[in-house]
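re: ur question from earlier - yeah i can do the single chain one, its not a big deal. heres the input i used so u can compare w yours
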Amino acid sequence: MNVRRFVIAFFGAAVLAACAPVNAPAEQPNVSQVEIRLSRGPCYGTCPVYTVTLTGEGQVRYEGRQFVNVVGERTATIPREDVARLVARFDEIGFDRLQDAYRGQMTDLPTYTVSLIRNGQTKTVVDYAGTSVGMPQAVRDLEAEIDRVAGTAQWVLRDGQPVRDRPQP
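and the output i got, formated as tokens:
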């Protein structure tokens, strides 16, 4: 009788174990239809003015306008996995739930605009001294991460330093 109970308990445990959820490896988000855009606007001083756009396919498009080493358009390619990690970072900070704009009451500062286009939906956050009015620091960190992943320093900086002279026509 005890053997019978043991066999039933053993098979019951085996069946339950087979039905237990398995922790699958975390999947990278599908980024084939994703676009990330960072625009850095002018200020009273010599703030770099440019826009960089990254696509889910790993294409980088840069357009420099003022106080950058390269005025005009440039392109590059980065690994799709880098874009996927950026998209995951957007999700980690709850980008879709952020306010559309964080505007401080000071003047003459640059405006930074971050947009994420995914599944036909666009979410944009405007940062004008945003951390002074409650914007999470994570948004500022995300802006820097976009620049790092896109490699904008190669076009924005001159000899590793900010550009201080006005662009020539």
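The longest strand covers residues 59-66. not sure if urs matches, ping me
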